[in-house]
Description:
The complex is a heterodimer. Chain A is α/β, with parallel strands linked by helices. Chain A folds into 2 domains: about 35-115 and about 235-305, Periplasmic binding protein-like II (D-Maltodextrin-Binding Protein, domain 2, 3-Layer(aba) Sandwich), CATH 3.40.190; about 115-235, 3-Layer(aba) Sandwich (D-Maltodextrin-Binding Protein, domain 2). Chain A has 12 helices and 12 strands. Chain B is mostly helical. Chain B has one domain: Orthogonal Bundle (MetI-like fold). Chain B has helices at about 5-15, 20-55, 60-70, 75-85, 100-125, 130-135, 140-150, 155-170, 170-180, 195-200, 205-230. The interface of A and B includes residues 57, 70, 86 and 192 of A.
Amino acid sequence: MTIQRREFLSVLGGGVxxxxxxxxxxxxxxxxxxxxxxxxxxxxxxxxxxxxxxxLNAPFEDRYGVTVDAVAQGTGAALRTARDGDSDVVMxxxxxxxxxxxxxxxxxxxxxxxxxxxxxxxxxxxPADVEGEDxxxxxxxxxxxxxxxxxxxxxxxxxxxxxxEIWDETGLTVEEFGEWYLDGGGGMGETLNTANLDGGYxxxxxxxxxxxxxxxxxxxxxxxxxxxxxxxxxxxxxxxxVNPAVHDNVNYDLAMAYIGYITSLEGQEIIEEYRSNDEQxxxxxxLSEDPNFRQYLPEGWERSSDx
Amino acid sequence: MSLEQQMLTALVxxxxxxxxxxxxxxxxxxxxxxTAVALSTLLSLPVALLVGxxxxxxxxxxxxIINTGMGFPSVVVGLVVLFAVSNQGPLGSFDLVFxxxxxxxxxxxxxxxxxxxxxLAAVSSVEQNVRDAAYAMGGTNLDVALVTIKEARYGIxxxxxxxxxxxxxxxxxxxxxxxxxxxxxxxxVTRTITTAIQLxxxxxxxxxxxxxxxxxxxxxxxxxAIVVRLGSGGGRYG
Lengths: 307, 238
């Protein structure tokens, strides 16, 4: 039955394509059909605030004659907007939440895009003695042991999700923490400011920390994988199109064109070459001569599809 | 070089933004807030006149509801409007999420209670005998309404300005329904002065946020000056 339906759809699709070809052929004074459309991209504050998106979007807009409306939200909010069908494509950094989004059928065609890493920062006197620690979970355990001030994002962002994953690894329960564990409840910049004022530790993406380093007294204590530190602090960014079968209003063609562009040689080069204060913030990850097909699937997908 | 030129040059040299960026966010701010206030006024004045003139059961309750509306948190209004215009909501088919139209809608919800409430107070304070006189001279309901508006014009101007102040200074609802979008060449799509300030503050750039704040204050001052001049109708103050 499914197969028959697919065949029917493909015949229908073919018919539509032929029909459209006829239309566009008759009136060749018009530009391509896609031109003039708007792509709504919901993404995280870290990609937006660093200025990378403007660099990436300008060439895409020029090539297709379209507009990209980039809305910077937290990862949680960006995915929620997409769930409601109010955005066409999502660029976020929380693999577990992306997987959930895919498994529930809201997203299709996820690609790994780029990565950077998180670092653990704190005051230079380092009361929990975590400096140079190469295991993020061990560092978190030491902070909890010392009951040293720790400022959490507490906002369902990608960074917060990562923080909770690390606490999970230590086997400690965040809800049982005492007054030393603070809920910053704001963006990365605000959380860094809070940690700076209260003299606490926090988890921060390297890009934001480098950007704000001059304005705060916090020091980088635990390195992420970019500088050979804890693998657990890896911060991968993915891009997912919203499933047009769930929300028929989304601009799926343009979303896929965008994913194609951003994972192309050109898009990946822009990511690789982007600098803020002479520092490379993002490392391109989409291209490889030995592609990893698992990147398209939520983790553990095989198991759930077997039963 | 005149003082003004010197000030302008100093501003241009130290100015951390592109002029195109500033111009476009000012344009979007004014477009959204002025449209919202104009529509709110059209909506609010008849309600204020009606409630002000008529005696009916539940008048006190209705007045309380209007006055409560003045205190609606803008974030909550933003969420409610987002639910309405979202693809899943009742206005979903109009595709209004992240547009200036959605921002206007949410600012109407914010400004209308303020304009209604303050106008109502102004209209209610117009002496009963003024209205009686207008009736006695054979005026229609419309004539009486116009006389009342004329008598209460300072109060109504204050109402409009209070509504405008609420609209242009709020950040919660326009951020949620507008999305704070600027295109890659730095032209604002749905970014207002307030959401631009929020963006700067989020990144720890408090100084540039303050510059934008100063621009906002100057704008509000200008609009106030214009409305006061219009409100005085070239009369007492003009």
